[in-house]
Amino acid sequence: MTEHPSFMYTPNEYEAEKASNSYLMSVIAVMIGLPLPVINLIATVIFFLANKRATHFVRWHCMQALLSQGFTFPINVAGVYWTLSILFGANIISNSYIAYIITIIVFNIAEFIATVYAAVQTRKGNHVEWWLFGPLTHLMIKS
User: Does residue 1 sit within a domain?
Assistant: First the structure.
């Protein structure tokens, strides 16, 4: 995650708040719908659609937040499905399951920290690009 110097636009207070809220939306959705990973994705999609006509800065950060949720969604769904198949099905806890759960926990903690950092920085009016999602966001959101 980097602060991107080539994004030379300085957003006003309202834009910075809206962009920051795009990241906070997924954090709040995690708290509300923790066992259901689809809640995060739905909340972020709704926030993006509500701001699709906003300024470039706001749309860009809404899309980056959406891409990050789109990436974590299938990983979390697989973990929930596997856990439910152990609890209610014939599957047993295996070393593979434990390794996968540890991996997604670490991944989600890292994503949570990055999301909070991005929310704080965009609230200050700084442009923050995530190393994986920033270039994709540039391709999807044009000026």
Answer: no
Pick from 124, 123, 122, 33: nearest CA to 137:
122
The verdict on residue 76 lying in a domain is yes
Structure tokens at 125: 């009016």
CA dist., res. 70 & res. 88, Å (int): 27
Bridge partners for 128 per DSSP? 3
pTM: 0.81
Q: How far apart are CA 20 and CA 31, in angstroms?
A: 17
SS3 129: strand
Would the pLDDT of 91 be above 90? no
CA distance 133 to 114: 12
Structural domain of 17 = 7-140
* Number of domains comprising the chain: 1
Please write the tens of the pLDDT for every residue from 28-80.
Answer: 776 776 667 788 888 889 989 999 889 989 999 999 999 988 888 899 899 99
DSSP bridge pairs for 2: 129
Q: How many CB atoms lie within 10 A of CB 127?
A: 23
Strands 2-3 and 128-129: antiparallel
